[in-house]
Amino acid sequence: MKGQKYCIQLLDIFYTIGEDTKVTQNFVFEYIPDSLEHYINRTSKAGEHIPATTIKTILMQILTGLAFIHGQNICHRDLKPDNILLDEELNVKICDFGSAKVIDGKSKKNIPHIVNKFYRAPELIFCRTDYNTQIDVWAVGCIFLELFRLEPVFPGASEGLQLLEIMAILGTPSKADKEYLYENLPADTIKKIEELQQFKAVDLKKVIPPFYKKECFQAVDLAKKMLEWNPCKRITAEQALTHPYFKMV
Description:
Layout: E1 10-17, E2 23-29, E3 34-35, H1 36-45, H2 52-71, E4 74-75, E5 84-86, E6 92-94, E7 101-102, H3 122-125, H4 134-149, H5 159-170, H6 175-181, H7 187-194, H8 213-226, H9 237-240
Antiparallel strand pairs: 1-2, 3-5, 4-7, 5-6
Helix pairs in contact: 2-4, 4-8
């Protein structure tokens, strides 16, 4: 269980009784002093950038931990930089499993209103309830690009604007992808979406700062595979770990 070490460890559980006799369940986790969100913000405010080797190391740890989680049929459902903890040596611990759920393919009635909107997969925006662990891979793809940019890649102020932010970079979904995404939408909603501006995909090389030139080609290829509109086409966490990006010296 190699990936387990990249997930926060539960050390103890105890109960307390308040003045109103209400029983509270308390969880004790290992202490990790920092988060990826704080690390990104500090780096940005200092006018610096995250070294390419550090990005690769952080991403590999996240994906290894995620592959372990998904191997247990668990979907995290709230991956974002604030839920990825870092120790002093930048070792990763995925935390906050409060929204996590076992998704084994049997239930098709999952709540779509989950995940911070900046990291929310398209199938969630289109209110599909039969999603799977691939929504976590989308979130990690967003985090991956954020490590280069030091800011969210799809910063929508609302769900509607979030969709436009995604389209503005990835382009309008293909006909085949629309068939999947629109499956449960009413006709009037589909009509409104189809009336939106049509976008062409942006070369992701333009999204990554130019000083990452050496890593850019393989990084972009991996990001594209993680950010597919249709989760059936999206690379899994386990597959992502074998991508040539991680073999670059």
